[in-house]
What does this fold into?
Amino acid sequence: MPLRPLPSRGVVVSPVLRKAALVAACLAALAPATASAEAGALPAAPDDRTLQSEIDAFVRSEGGPPGVIAVLRDGGKSRVLRAGVADVRTGREPRPHDHMRIASVAKAFSGAVALTLVNSGDLALDDTLRERLPRLPRAWGSVTLRQLLNHTSGLPDYTEAPSFRDAVTADPRRHFDSRRLLDHVADQPLNFKPGSRYRYSNSDNIAVALMAEAVTGTTYEHLLAELVYRPLGLRDTTLPQGYRLPEPYLHGYDVSGPGEPEDISEVLSASGVWASGGIVSTPADLSRFIRGYAGGELYGGKVVREQRRWVKGASEPAGPGRNTAGLGIFRYATRCGAVLGHTGNFPGYTQLAAATPDGRRSLTFSVTTQINKTLAPEQLKRLRAIEEDFVCAVLKKGR
It folds into this structure.
């Protein structure tokens, strides 16, 4: 598809960014990356000096991110490793309370809302789109909440629709009606019989949020505040509609062109990804969230067991180790053991948030450029290897 120039509106937009905004950064479905190879464990987990050397080298590498910040938690103890800068212009270092786009980690938040409503009896995992959202196409009617949450629904991905891409091309900062995003694919049938296979789709979590609104009669933003932010103590997490980021923030960059990295932190409107990828948070808040979410703090054991019924499938981009999919969460089986969480990808940002199944130990790993299988396959391979070492450090097991 030919790409029309994007209006800059005060922001320099490169041809590479045009492609990223339309193809990768619209969060289109990507084929899962291959799992990392198994390796024999050594007696000790990677120490902080080793981890620091890895991220320092990553930042200095060709096509590497301008900044990295990782928060590792063990019970009440926290340590922060960082490399590079949060802002190329000022040289300021990344900090745990810097705001950032968490990209598809937002899908874990929609999982948290939906499963909390399942726990309270307002929703059931077998509820269908026909029952809860009858305005959606009849052909989608048999899709269940469970299938939306584990990406086996077959819903066509609205971010791949020409009408959506054309709208983003014409105005990257356009304000979309987030509740009408699925209209872009309303004329399309399901990609496959619901439940028969896995395919990551950004449409799934839009439908999840709409189902939550339908059964509660309140906005998804209010549900996030009441069911997730407040119980988990998140103070700096929001779901905006615009393109602005609150200060201070980790600046996100396009590093693919010649010359200096290009700041693209505020190029795209969050309204076009909403429940699928629009949340803004901080490394500190994301740490609190993933410990509570992976640890099952928000709902009872029966719901947790349903959430952890794993099917074959990877997050986008793929996380460390071998990936399998649950309900709004992924299992990352590394050489040192397994953690539960989610990854995310957005222009200027790549994210991993993961924790042990009891929520005691956690890792958030935030990178200030977009790295995925389509745009930077070799960098993704390197990133996953680094993430795996950080998981080993969190689990205190050998390399």
Summary: Residues 306 and 327 are 8 Å apart (CA to CA). The first helix runs from residue 15 to 24.
